[in-house]
């Protein structure tokens, strides 16, 4: 340990103010170890109990920043042991202890098992606190160049091809930038499936964000598919998709959409929903809705 780490360790051990009795969800670096907040270091240093998706990763992070374990309990909490580990964490909170939980990398509860823990903590009337910080999804959105006013995070794609195609169908028409996590070995299969329905979809692949060999590829799904080797990529991958391509909407489409709504709601509301869905003037859709309503009478 160098002099700087020794000094930091000494400072932390002296200024460790105990956090409130709560589950503290600590965002941790997705690449560069320096991408951690001062507040996160304070809580990791002073919490009564530490929990992590992978305790080895957390120990390594503590070592890098010179934070001593000081005999504190370190609980592994992940998909395979969540039901067994959760009672111990809840018991610590009921005893008035503070618990810091860190996922492997990034913000807890984003595509990791921590959400069930937070749900149960809240369900028992206990306190949950968030310590914001690194997020692969938001880092990818930031560098993508795609619209950021509305975005949809859809997690990891399914392994099986059929399930993956249904997963794509569930979000392909969303008027939002879509953010997905993907195995580097399966990026090619994901793009192949997307190209079957929308090859010109604006696509961005972010690889190894915040790390030394960070790479961002931009183009259409078809363009990027041609750049991906058969064996896939290496490293951590975030894939983003732009808004769907504008589609030509015919009068039959509008009449069908309105007919499905007019039996359920007033003309004005149905017209507003269809106009928003197709991006058309509300006045024109309202006139068509009135025509359809009168024709039914």
Automatic annotation (TrEMBL):
EC class name: transferase
Pfam family membership, one: TP_methylase
UniProt domain RsmI HTH: residue ranges: 251-293
Reactions mediated catalytically: cytidine(1402) in 16S rRNA + S-adenosyl-L-methionine = 2'-O-methylcytidine(1402) in 16S rRNA + S-adenosyl-L-homocysteine + H(+)
Location relative to the cell: Cytoplasm
Keyword Transferase (UniProt): yes
Keyword entries, A-Z: Cytoplasm, Methyltransferase, rRNA processing, S-adenosyl-L-methionine, Transferase
CDD domains: RsmI
Any Gene Ontology CC annotation: cytoplasm
Domain Tetrapyrrole methylase: 23-224
This enzyme's EC code(s): 2.1.1.198
MF GO annotations: rRNA (cytosine-2'-O-)-methyltransferase activity
rRNA processing as UniProt keyword: yes
PANTHER family, per the entry: RIBOSOMAL RNA SMALL SUBUNIT METHYLTRANSFERASE I
Function of the molecule: Catalyzes the 2'-O-methylation of the ribose of cytidine 1402 (C1402) in 16S rRNA.
Family classification: Belongs to the methyltransferase superfamily. RsmI family.
Name of the protein in its database record: Ribosomal RNA small subunit methyltransferase I
